[in-house]
Amino acid sequence: MSPLAPQLETVMSIAREPDAVSHKLLDGPRPLAHHLPDDGLIAEAVTGGDRVGGVSLERILIPEHGGDPPLGVASARFVARALGDDRNGGEPRAFQGINLELPRNALIVVTGVSGSGKSSLAVDTIYAEGQRRYVESLSAYARQFLEQMQRPDVDHIEGLSPAIAIQQRPLGANPRSTVATATEIHDYLRVLYARLGVPHCTGCGDPLVRHTVQDMVDEILGWDEGLQLILLARMADRVKGSHAELLARLAQDGFVRVRVDGEVRELAGLARLKAKAAHTIDLVVDRLTVKRGIKNRLTDSMELALRMGNGRMIVLVPSSGEERLFTEQMGCARCGTGYAALDPTSFSFNSPRGACPSCHGLGTRFELDLERMIDPAKSLAGGALLPLRFGGRSLIIYYKVLLRAVAAHYGFSMDIPFGKIEKKWRDIVLAGSGDEEIMLRFWRGRHPVTRRAPFEGIIANLERRYRQTESAYIRKKLREYMEERVCAACGGRRLRPEPLAVTVAGKSMSDFCAMTVGDALRFLDAIAFTGHDRRIGAELLKEIGGRLTFLKNVGLDYITLDRESSTLSGGEAQRAHLATQIGSGLMGVLYVLDEPSVGLHVRDNVGDIIAVPESLTGRYLSGERFISVPARRRAPAPSRRLELLGASHNNLKGIDVRIPLGLLCAITGVSGAGKSSLVDDTIRRAMEREFYGSRAAPGKYRALKGIGHIDKVIIIDQSPIGRTPRSNPATYAGIYTTIRDLFAQHPDAKARGYRPGRFSFNVKGGRCEACRGDGLIRVEMHFLPDVYVPCEACGGRRYNRETLEIHFKGKSIADVLDMTVEEALQFFRNVPALFRRLTVLNDVGLGYIRLGQSATTLSGGEAQRVKLAKELGMVATGRTLYILDEPTTGLHFADIHKLIEVLQRLVEAGNTVLVVEHNMEVLKCADWIIDLGPEGGADGGRIVAEGTPEQVAACAGSHTGRHLAHYLGETAGDRQRPARGV
């Protein structure tokens, strides 16, 4: 966030990492005017009590930027008062009725335990109101095209700047989106290469030159004297038709001769051309001999020929039959090939003018993988070709008839295993018969049809079917048998050959985009334009260099510009988005950052900490509370480990990774070191293919050993537990079914004949039909954002009156769903099945969430912990491999404390927990660490250190070890001034 500070923007950051809260802290429900540094400014959060929504609301301490205060709090602030319930989602906020005064031009951090209201305050209220006010300033016509936000439930906000939210979201899921396109670098590159690039011949590689008429005349005058020439203008190039109108017009214009299909003929006696044949017609503009005194005539004739031939003309030497092409366009002096002028669109792989015609600008193509689509142990009659086994009945029959015809024609059996058929016959089945025709007999409706035609082959047939089908289901099914491969035509560079042959300082545009941010900056610094090119290129290089510098400043110097946006981690995407916003040069903007430190190694996130010990956060920062190093570490068993040998996906350098089983193992390393490539792209996909038959191809590796020690693999990621508001923690964790059963067993419910389905808001019967169980009614407001109001029929309680009349211990089903996990834990303490599952949810730090809370309102970290709780509630086998990707995302110190205890419980049961993590509190509690690096990108992908935390901490070349050593050596007394930023 350092690039923002000099601009004195207002930055509000939601954070929980100790280093992300560096030199800027907040906390505690009581005034904190004492024990503060002299250069500090305080914005107090005044609440109605010490606890709001079950947790302490934290305060904000903002140190000034140094020197005299740029603006005082009294004159530069924005104020929010009386925040209440969230009308949009129908869920109560974690805070109610608070007043805030926040200073401008400061770095403000909002922190607190999960559920304390950080996002509700910063994103759902302050950002939402700033965005809403900006949109409302536009015309009604413009507003209909923009996403409009619901007015937050706030009484008054004054002094609010235009707001930009930089949240944890991908830059784009579209494969056409790259780092360069998402940050606008690609747009400036296209202009740079179109205006200042040097084009080359795609054939011989020589630089192209643009000839003037005078250049052409001088060249011809240098030929042998006495040489006879014919100057021709190409009027039609292999075009079908009689061309009667063209020929008549040329005769009327006074021309005498044309060359038709290579033969010079008089226009006056020319017979009518065949209309169905393709003809090439060249106009004879002049006939002359090379000698002195023809310069003026030659110039006039060449200008006429170029004008008639649209900038191109042919000089024919009749004595030898040699032809020479002259063009006013770019042309190759050696090959004589002319090239059309290139503009910025020609360098865009998102435009048909620039995109490779083979892969349409994607750089990759989906091609059938023979290993996936063929079962060699089966016969053709028994379904050896797997993609032919799905589809409509008529299509399946058609393929069987087709294969029988091929087998009959070549004389091989369809009843023997496909792998035992002679290779030449297998090749014909897959690749086709070429020009050889085969007798095909099939039924069209009720009529038999017989025809002879070449057999195109199953591969070509399926690829054509994949391209032409309009069915998303068919395309999805066929893709299961395909593999994404680099396009052979462009080599993965996305563009046509012509723009790829244009260079600036010896580098093509694809070469430039293949560089890392750091290398690209060094390359730009070395470019030296001369003459008028310097004036043209100065502004372009400034814009490109500025954006590259911002990317470098936010720690992304290792990322290549052509990297797909969808492959970036959440933290990388957020920092790229941040760099884009900073590059816009806006002033007076309120930036709202949601967890900007996610995905960052502690090396990239350092600084001093000011602790305010009155709050829960302060007690962890000051050392009053801390996470202890385990008293003992589990020792690995050499005979029980998972081995991945030769991992070489992305930047992995063919490494051999050995993961001891039955331990808490952590994969760490700086950003871009290869953690996701190893764990997510390779290990996870390989295990899913082994255990669950997944067709997703894992990253490249040589061998995978030790799978026999594992009986199942559980992936606990941060994807949502549901895509609709109807999904909630109770349904996902299996609690809701038991609750409905309890209500159905109530005597009143039995007397009315109610079954468990009666207490579901997803089906007819017990739900309110006015809102269909949503509890809210959407009111369309046309030019204003849609408004959600509580359903008048059920009062927002989702169920009809009869269902709500059934009570369990004095509570209706709606009352139960509105309980927090903590409240439900006490309410159901005598129901063992529920008590056990609720205890697990509480243990993972989710005691504050409501059972019926919409899944769409849960953060990624909350969703991950709900999944973890579900797994903990199941019967453990002791041989399960759990894979978690940054489970501490969005967690407070206290929540991390709980999470570590839960992970240790899984390992104590004999299971293996593999986490990708940067958090030092988790790493110091791990049994085994594998540290990748030493740097990111091309300089990463190696194992820098592996072993116990103590062994990694002793490794001098490990960035992780260097910081981990401070955490392992800390005592409670040391924590009075934590060494996070050392």
Major sheet characteristics: 6 strands, antiparallel
Q: Percent range for helical residues?
A: 25-40%
Q: If helices are DSSP runs of H or I spanning 4 or more residues, what is the number of helices? A: 31
In whole angstroms, the N-to-C terminal distance is 19 Å
**Major β-sheet strand ordering:** 13-12-14-11-15-16
Provide structural commentary.
The chain is of the alpha+beta class and 982 residues long. The chain is built from 31 helices and 36 strands. Strands 13-12-14-11-15-16 form a 6-stranded antiparallel β-sheet. A 6-stranded mixed β-sheet has the order 30-33-34-28-35-36, sandwiched between helices. A hairpin with a 7-residue loop joins strand 31 (776-779) and strand 32 (787-790). Helix 25 (821-827) packs antiparallel against helix 26 (832-843). The radius of gyration is 36 Å and the shape is globular.
Summarize this entry quickly.
The chain has 982 residues and is α+β, with helices and mostly antiparallel strands. It is 31% helix and 18% strand.
